[in-house]
Amino acid sequence: MTKTMHRWMAFAAVGTLASVMAPAVAFADTTSVQAIPQGVGPGVLQQASYFGDTDPSTPVTVDLVMKLQNQGQLAQFIDQTTTPGRGFRQYLSTNSFASQYAPNPQIASAIQTYLRAYGIQSTVYSDKLVITATGTAGQFNKAFNISLMNASLHGRKFHATKTPPQAPSSIANSILCILGLTNYSDFASQAVKPLTTSGSTEPNAALAPSALMPSDLEQQYDVTPLYKQGATGQGQTIGIVTLADFNPSDAQYFWNYNHIQTKANRIHVYDVDGGSGLSEADGSDETSLDVEQSGALAPQADINVYVGPNSDTGFVDAFAKAISDDAVQELSTSWGESETAIASAVQQNLETPQYAQVFNQLFMEAAAQGISTFAAAGDDGAYAATSDSVETYNLSVLNPADSPYITAAGGTTLPVLEAAQFGVTKERAWGFDYLYPFLAQLGYPPLNPYSFTGGGGGFSTVFATPDYQQGVSGVNHFTAVQWWTPSADGTSTTFNANPQIVTGTGSGRNLPDLSMNADPESGYSVYFSLPIADGSSDLDTGWSQYGGTSFVAPQLAGLSALINSADHTQVGFWNPQIYRFAQQKNSPLHPLDDTGTSNDNIYYTGTAGTIYNQATGLGTPDVAQLANNFR
């Protein structure tokens, strides 16, 4: 099942409004204060149990996220960079982006001055969109007129403030939201072990790798012609954003085992906000597989690994560094949480919750700078919220894959390995419904840990349908298999042994964008060891078989590097281009449009003759043909 890596942060206690004005700070409107949205809102904060103030000496790291300026103009600029003609693939530097689309630098300077008056230190990323501040709970209490308290919800302990932070209006007007004053979070790795080996979560040193290798992907999705042209990813740098540490030597061992000639000293690790702080198996396998897979497909590319703490600020700051440094051409992440969880953790009834907008702003910057960015669409089929804190059975999709400015990587099943033994005869949408008869034979009840496993997909409730999806057949229309009927409140569900085929319409950003093999039953070999404090590894080292859309996202990043080196270009943001290709004759993307239980992600299935469906997006790529289209 999905390895859930929950993200936590530190928060503080509170002061009075008068204390905000105590230091001598040069603001003309010091009598005018304004509330600032914070990353976690009433959905969590009002339900939690509180039991005392947080120790005022507790270290706290907070992100003040600035409001993107001229967002409509930025969207037009990105469209120009992805459309042949004037401005095509003419990207911005980070400094140019900041000068055109970030708030006036004087605002950031004023915020830093304000924080410094309370003893809080801060740094501004070069894109001028994120200010990271570090101090103590007591200092943040006074600076933002809050009272951070110890709290618990759903068995989890965290710090929180029920009242929104406040600051002088002269600076608050430019702040989109503050992240880190509450550390309730649900980031999860999108990696899954197959049912047949699920008894152990540790690698087996004695196990010879028997699952798929990168060479299998190369054959399945027609990558080999690019290698014959001499493409190797030369001149490219792949970025991996992750929330867990790993042993870089594992990736090198993996490449050597597969006889892949790689560039020397190609892995560069950047610990963001002090790194993950994880010393055991809390996602180290995820990071290892991300590096192994992307690096195998583009063997001469460099790989920058941005490792942040499993927290709001850690995830945001890892992206902020990767994007504002502007040192990568491709960027991938395999972590996320459901929109349903976010909806219960931000202020209610907002059309565009600020939390999701934080990531969307960063991905718009990445697109403007020509970075091809990919995110795993999730491993819970159409029910992304079943494995996170809210545990509802309503349809949901994963963030940050829901951003219109990132390529959402979906999942399929190949007719190989265990999947073939369970009756899969051709590539299909990944959904563990094909295992339901086998699970019943094993005595599993209909509602069991494997019931909602499959490639993520569906409709965003946060972001509108982007222009590049408008008018594409299958977008905002769906065919589905009604395996499950959730209750009205989503807290329970009923299994339908003979599911009906239903049709309907949807709205919002449609996910995923394209798909490749992600089913652990037709999965890939991973070699990893568990990092420990001294940087070495313990005895839990060896091979394992994994799946998940966490493979597809880094694989696409590696393929993007390969395509860039083959075409001697920088492709940039994929989505507007691949949706255009999909509507042309001789499309490099092959829709999986069969309807029914042989091709669903536990809910969504194909519709004959359409280009798009919410189980597999535009389908699977012919990579060599895709490279020709990108030229």
TrEMBL record:
Signal peptide, first to last residue: 1-28
GO molecular function: peptidase activity
Keyword presence, Hydrolase: yes
Source species of the chain: Alicyclobacillus fastidiosus
Keyword Metal-binding: yes
InterPro entries xrefs: Peptidase_S8/S53_dom_sf, S53_propep, Sedolisin_dom, Tripeptidyl-peptidase_I
Cited PANTHER family: PROTEASE S8 TRIPEPTIDYL PEPTIDASE I CLN2 (PTHR14218), TRIPEPTIDYL-PEPTIDASE 1 (PTHR14218:SF15)
Keywords assigned by UniProt, alphabetized: Calcium, Hydrolase, Metal-binding, Protease, Serine protease, Signal, Zymogen
UniProt-listed GO biological process terms: proteolysis
Entry-linked SUPFAM superfamilies: Protease propeptides/inhibitors, Subtilisin-like
Swiss-Prot/TrEMBL cofactor(s): Ca(2+)
Pfam families: Pro-kuma_activ (PF09286)
Residue ranges annotated for the Peptidase S53 domain, each copy included: 211-631
Protein name as it appears in the record: Protease pro-enzyme activation domain-containing protein
